[in-house]
Predict the structure.
Amino acid sequence: MDKARLKATRTLIFDYDGTLHDSRQNYIVAFKRAYRYLIAHQKAKPREWQDDEITKWLGYSSKEMWENFMPDLAEDYQMAASKIIGETLLEKVLSKEAKLYPEALETLDNLKNKGYKLIFLSNCSKAYMQAHQETFQLERYFDEMYCTEQFDFIAKHEIFSLIKSEDQDEYLVIGDRIHDLEIGHYHQLITIGCNYGFGTQAEMQQSDIRINSIQELQELL
């Protein structure tokens, strides 16, 4: 790790679910509700799900999730099931059932006060991003907020090419899935992997630095 580069970095790109927001329980509820819909329409067979079989899809865009989970499912059923998941997740945040990881907002505030520019980049819908923005007042911390729906769900490393500032030299990426770390790989940026999120150990090994809690950033940066 080049400590001089780390010290020179002034712009931080944050993933959201699995990095700042602990979406595990709400996503499990949403996924199971959507799967029951598919069973009711004879598009899936009843089965028991382990939590980690469900949460492994966190961090994927809706399109990417279905391409990998049930690629032969008709598109209209994919869209209907995705709508159920999205609506359930929105219900959860609007009913105050969404929760951030401990010290998440305090860490963002700490970094903001140190002069870092913070960018939000999540594989989510605009409605989901806006609901969380309002619930947790994220605009107080983030200078820019983006979701993949705004870019037709293209890969995050492609979105970075569209949003990066030409006069900004060093960025740092913080996330829990390979989709986040790919930004660093494609653009030669420092990456911080979140061990506590939803990524596998193999994914985390692709990061330059690994943290076990979001608050570790307060000492690291």
Remarks:
- The beta strands are 11-14, 117-122, 144-147, 171-175, 190-194, 209-211.
